[in-house]
Amino acid sequence: MATSTTTDRVLNFSAGPGILPEEVLRQVQEDIWNIDGTGMGIMEHSHRAATYDRIIAEAIEDCKKVGTIGDDYEVLFMSGGASAQNHLIPANLLPEGGTADYANTGTWAKKTHAECKVYGTAHLAFDGKATNYKFVPSQADLDFSASPAYFHYTSNNTIMGTQYHYVPEPPLGVPLVCDACSDIFSRPLDVTKYGLIYAGAQKNLGPAGTTVVIIRKDLLERTPRELPTMLRYKVYAESESRPNTPPVFPIYVVGLVFKWILSQGGLGPIAERNAAKAKIIYDAIDATEFYRGHAREDSRSLMNISFTTPSPALDKAFLAEALEAGMDNLKGHRSIGGIRASIYNAFPAEGCETFAQFMREFERRHG
Fold first, then answer.
1. pLDDT tens digits for range 312-344
2. In a domain, 4, yes or no
3. Overall domain count for the chain
4. Residue range(s) defining the domain that contains residue 29
5. Which is the catalytic residue, given 203, 234, 277, 331?
6. How far apart are CA 268 and CA 264, in angstroms?
7. Does 170 map to a domain?
8. Cβ count within 10 A of residue 192
9. Active site residue 179
10. Which of 118, 131, 184, 187 has its CA 20 to 30 A from that of 108?
11. Same domain? 39 vs 182
């Protein structure tokens, strides 16, 4: 059975919740029982206790270190996943009667666009539906409205296996908003180009239960409408993400992942390793007609690799044999089927080599 760096763990290709660094998991094991010598586990501590004061302060500080985030931005930890951000963004940023621009590049981008319509006009600057979302738009493909309140895009499309390899430029003065759920901190990031970046933790940062929001401070002052307390970004910024009892455990784990990224040398080395890992699998796909990738070559994701074999029956056999060989969570999303290998930051490079070898052997036996 193929495993990761320990003998009792399979290679986990899950698209989310995703793989976590083993060093982080070992620390979690200890801190669940007794953190900081307090005699209590992390899940038993109050969100007002000194232990959590340290955790949240370090998580914010380390997030800023990882992303080279300046003092003109706030780092928030919120609940409700990225799905909640779909309505929170227009609720906080879109004026009454205003228009926001969106790029539809897949399932999650489509859902985000749909939620905006509750608050105003949602203009599609790009719609990839006609081509089954096989690629992301170039800058020239983007058709902006006359005066958008912001432009929203999804940097990596987990289901389709597509990814932007550049940062789109909205019209001058228009805030850029990014759903970075599945590729946040997988490569260097120029935060100054963005008004707001958000990511559910469960793909590349930690367990499910919290969402990281990086927001430029001037956007906190937008008040397009009256909102309940818990729906306002400014409330989270002013309360150190503690307007109520926060999801302490997920935030704690995300903080450990930030420390792990820093221990790896930061986003430069992380990006180099991610590109090398993805190349191993894409080379196996490109070497043969047996496998077919979903994404157009110029839009291929380094995080989620979606592909098929020659038939649904062989797809099913591939998944069964891979599981037997110790490779789990490879089933493609129901909307496109096939196989999906998610290889987030913590996925080991040797696991990609093992998977590519399995692909070649499977083709030899079934091709």
1. 999 999 999 999 999 999 999 988 899 999 999
2. no
3. 2
4. 25-263
5. 203
6. 9
7. yes
8. 11
9. yes
10. 187
11. yes
Based on the fold, state whether residues 44 and 192 are members of the same structural domain: yes
Selected catalytic residue, list 62, 101, 108, 183? 108
Choosing from 215, 232, 263, the residue where a domain stops is: 263
Please count the other Cβ atoms lying within 10 Å of the Cβ belonging to residue 128.
23
Candidate list 179, 234, 277, 315, residue with the active-site label = 179
- The question of whether 190 is a catalytic residue gets the answer no
Last residue of a domain, one of 263, 288, 304: 263
Rounded Cα–Cα distance for residues 85 and 266 (Å): 27
Q: Are residues 53 and 174 in the same domain?
A: yes
pTM (predicted TM-score) = 0.95
Average pLDDT over residues 247-256: 97
User: What six digits make up the tokens of 266?
Assistant: 């930061």
Pair type for strands 156-157 and 162-163: antiparallel
Mark whether 108 is an active-site residue.
Answer: yes
- When pLDDT is cut at 50, 70 and 90, the band that residue 56 belongs to is very high
Is there a domain that residue 6 lies in?
Answer: no
Comparing CA positions, the residue from 299, 350, 309 lying closest to residue 327 is 350
> What is the model's pLDDT at position 7?
62
Output the six-digit token pair for 185: 């901190």
Q: Are 175 and 95 in contact (CB under 8 A)?
A: no
